[in-house]
Structure formats: C-alpha cells, structure tokens
Design goal:
Number of helices: 4
Shape: globular
CATH class: Alpha Beta
Strand order of the largest sheet: 4-3-2-1-5
Structural class: alpha/beta
Number of domains: 1
Distance between the termini: 19 Å
C-alpha cells in the first residue's frame, strides 16, 4: 500500500507504472488540471484531490473524489509507504 503524491503530470507515466490496486494516487499542484484528470481512466487504484486544490464539481465529474486535509492525514496513516512525484 503506497500513497502516491503526484505534483506534476509529466511524471505520471513513471508513477502509473508502479500503481497497484491497494495504492492511492493523490493529485497536487500542477497535476490538479481538468485536462489531465480527464485522461485518468482504468487506473487500478483510487484517485483523490484535496478539496482546496480544485473545483470540486469538475473533479468529481471525472470520478475523482475530493478529500479534506483530515482525510489526507487518514490516508497517510492507512498507507505504509508514500512516494512523492514532483
């Protein structure tokens, strides 16, 4: 179980190669882009965005759940490891 913090879409290919069904992908900074988010399909894991980082309705249109900072902390606790792609 890895929590992947993706900060830039240019690193998505490297990140995606390591994603498993037990991981979570958290989009941050430049990765919170509607055009980029719309390309994310058929991922083996959950995808999340911080509520403060984007327009909630746009993100949820693409099936990406927006989370609070408290929920982010819960993800950090729940995942044994984390990787930063940024």
């Amino acid at each position: 179980m890895i929590l992947h913090h993706l900060h830039h879409p240019s690193l998505y290919g490297q990140c995606a190669a390591l994603l498993s069904e037990h991981d979570t992908l958290l989009l941050l900074d430049e990765a919170v882009d509607t055009a980029f988010i719309s390309t994310l399909d058929q991922l083996p894991c959950a995808v999340r965005i911080l509520k403060s980082a984007t327009n909630r309705s746009e993100a949820e249109t693409f099936g990406v759940q927006c989370i609070t900072v408290d929920e982010w902390v819960d993800l950090v606790i729940a995942h044994r490891h984390s990787m930063t792609w940024g």
